[in-house]
From TrEMBL:
Residues 183-301 form the Trafficking protein particle complex subunit 13 middle domain. Belongs to the TRAPPC13 family. This is Trafficking protein particle complex subunit 13. Signal peptide: none annotated. Residues 314-409 form the Trafficking protein particle complex subunit 13 C-terminal domain. Residues 14-170 form the Trafficking protein particle complex subunit 13 N-terminal domain. Part of the multisubunit TRAPP (transport protein particle) complex. PANTHER family: TRAFFICKING PROTEIN PARTICLE COMPLEX SUBUNIT 13 (PTHR13134:SF3).
Length: 418
């Protein structure tokens, strides 16, 4: 390709500079010292004392007072904000007109326009520049290409155009944190407990600004990561939310189905969408990152055709004194009416008070009934409520319910003394 001097001059009218904007880092000096009896004597120690980057009185502790700008592009992680400085400079002695700077970010799935303004600048005088700062919250992993295009018109009316490509990789969030979650549910209720574990596997501490659970439409959520002290909610992790390198933190949430869904037993059955975690953190000198997980799902326990749940039960009861519980029986079938019989079987520690083998009557599909039952315990300690049997007289099928709940049985004399 042959280029005339005039054309070459047009190619060199302006230049494009693109730099990533990142926070500075603390400079860490490497102390070099020796014993006074060694050949250098006190030379190394004196040099460190004269070094402006060291802390006075702590020269050998690798502590620094200076900030340094990054010398390379660095790493970009999923959820962080990518910031870049774009500058177009007129290197010629001519005035160029109608300068338009456009910045696009190309990912594997989409192309995003990051330019602050799409309007052209009327003219750019010699040795002047046009500056722009772009920001983008990274939401995809893999290869990203920043495409910067510049178009302008020369004094001779010739339209010029050029562009540059800047490629960088976005790393998976698992390279900066490890996430795991576990579900726990109570067999007699619809309550679900979610434990989310977050581990910092980087070499620097992180400030956990927010870790919250956005529940699905079927649930209400209660965060269990704070305690009430003197009428004020205090985080269980302390006043400072720093997560040190390789440290792990567990966040706990309790989810309860909304009333309109809890009353319909068939909706809660099967695979249930719980919600998604929203995590916000800061690193180094306030660099902010954010990540939203995909929808978390758990396999709800199968209740079968008949479900027994506890509506009310005391936490603590007295030894050999009757106490009351309220049970809820639900016909989970959507087609068949059941005729149920209730049987109560005593255990070594729990004794039922009432008539066993009584008819409960007909229970229509997806409907429920509540029963008030009376028990007493003959053994102290944490005792399990067991021994309920429901028999469907039509199918001659018996449903057994053991370990429904636990109660703490204490002596009445001990309670009076307390």
């Amino acid at each position: 390709m042959n280029i005339s001097p005039k054309q070459f001059e047009h190619f060199c009218l302006s230049s494009l500079t693109v730099m990533r904007l990142t926070k500075p880092t603390l400079f860490t000096n490497i102390p070099v010292t020796c014993e006074e009896k060694d050949l250098p004597g006190d030379l190394f120690n004196q040099l460190m004392k004269d070094d402006p980057s060291t802390v006075n009185g702590a020269e050998i502790l690798m502590l620094g007072e200076m900030l340094t700008l990054p010398q390379n592009f660095g790493n970009i992680f999923l959820g962080e904000t990518f910031s870049s400085y774009i500058s177009v400079h007129n290197d010629s002695n001519q005035v160029v007109k109608d300068i338009l700077v456009k910045a696009d970010l190309q990912t594997s799935s989409q192309r995003l326009n990051l330019s602050a303004s799409n309007a052209a600048v009327a003219e750019l005088k010699p040795d002047c520049c046009i500056d722009d700062v772009i920001h983008h919250e990274v939401k995809e992993i893999g290869t990203h290409i920043l495409v910067c295009a510049v178009s302008y018109t020369t004094q001779g009316g010739e339209k010029m155009y050029f562009r540059k490509f800047f490629k960088f990789q976005v790393l998976n969030m698992e390279d900066i944190m490890l996430f795991s979650n576990a579900f726990y549910f109570l067999g007699s209720t619809d309550e679900v407990f979610l434990e989310a574990q977050i581990q910092n596997i980087t070499t620097s501490p992180m400030f956990m600004e927010k870790v919250s659970l956005e529940p699905s439409i079927m649930y209400n959520v209660t965060e269990l990561n704070s305690v009430n002290q003197a009428g004020e909610c205090v985080s269980t992790f302390g006043s400072r939310g720093y997560l040190q390198p390789m440290d792990t933190r567990q966040y706990l949430y309790c989810l309860k189905p909304k009333k309109e869904f809890a009353e319909k037993a068939g909706i809660i059955k099967g695979v249930t969408v719980i919600g998604k975690l929203d995590i916000v953190w800061k690193t180094n000198l306030g660099e902010r990152g954010r990540l939203q997980t995909s929808q978390l799902q758990r396999m709800a326990p199968g209740y079968g055709d008949v479900r027994l749940s506890l509506e009310a039960i005391p936490d603590t009861v007295n030894l050999e004194e009757p106490f009351h519980i309220t049970c809820k029986i639900t016909n989970c079938s959507s087609e068949r009416t059941m005729d149920l019989v209730l049987e109560m079987c005593n255990t070594t520690s729990i004794h039922w008070c009432g008539i066993s083998g009584r008819q409960l009557g007909k229970l229509h599909p997806s409907s429920s009934l509540c029963l008030a039952l009376t028990l007493l315990s003959s053994v102290q300690g944490l005792q399990s409520v067991s021994g309920l049997r429901l028999t469907d007289t039509f199918l001659k099928r018996t449903y057994e319910y053991d370990d429904i709940a636990q109660v703490c049985v204490v002596s009445a004399a001990v309670e009076v003394e307390a």
